[in-house]
Structures are given as structure tokens and as C-alpha cells.
Write a structure and sequence with these properties.
Layout: H1 21-33, H2 45-56, E1 59-60, E2 66-67, H3 68-76, H4 79-83
Antiparallel strand pairs: 1-2
Length: 105
């Protein structure tokens, strides 16, 4: 958000795969947890928070070995992720498989 409290949203241009590289990497992490064909009909908001927490807690080389959660919390403070329902998942507790939400399938 800028100083007026407005957020900026950017879209990739059509047919510009060079703008989508990191998005595709995140998509792969999400697909590890929610394989193609997985129905989200029975998901509740807490399930989405859990998936986002796990995906955003993965440390990435592109982020200099930090996680998206760590960088976001450092930049905006710990309160914002908490308001969004996102929490940091310690590496030893991280799950990058469909077993995370298997009770929903």
C-alpha cells in the first residue's frame, strides 16, 4: 500500500511468459499441496490460510534464502500477516505434499 492507503495490483501481459516465472514457481508449490483435480468445495477459510502459510514459509533461492513470509513480515511488520490469517511455519513442520489437507479430500 502507498501512503494514501491504496494498493497497487499488477497483471502480466498476455503471451509474456518472461513475466510469469515466479508466479509459475508459486503455482508449483500450491499444486504440491492441492494436486490438479482437487476440489476445493469443502475447504474453509482456515484451510486456505494453512496452504498460504505453508507455501509462503518455504525458503527460496530467488529470495536470498528467505521465505516470502519472512520478507513480507520484515517489510510490513508481523501484524499484517496475522490479520491475513497467515503464520510462519517452521521448516521442520513444513509440509509440501497433499497430506497437508488430506482430511478434506
Amino acid at each position: 500500500m502507498d501512503i494514501r492507503g491504496e494498493s497497487k495490483l499488477f497483471f502480466c501481459d498476455p503471451n509474456r511468459s518472461d513475466q510469469k516465472g515466479r508466479i509459475e514457481n508459486i503455482h508449483t508449490l500450491i499444486r504440491d499441496l492441492l494436486p490438479k483435480g482437487t476440489s476445493s468445495d469443502n475447504f474453509i477459510q482456515e484451510d486456505i490460510h494453512l496452504v498460504c502459510s505453508h507455501v509462503n514459509s518455504v525458503k527460496r533461492a530467488a529470495l536470498n534464502g528467505e521465505s516470502a513470509y519472512e520478507l513480507f513480515a520484515f517489510t510490513y511488520g508481523e501484524g499484517i500477516p496475522k490479520l491475513l490469517g497467515i503464520s510462519k511455519i517452521p521448516a521442520e513442520d513444513g509440509c509440501q505434499s497433499s497430506k497437508l489437507l488430506q482430511y478434506r479430500f
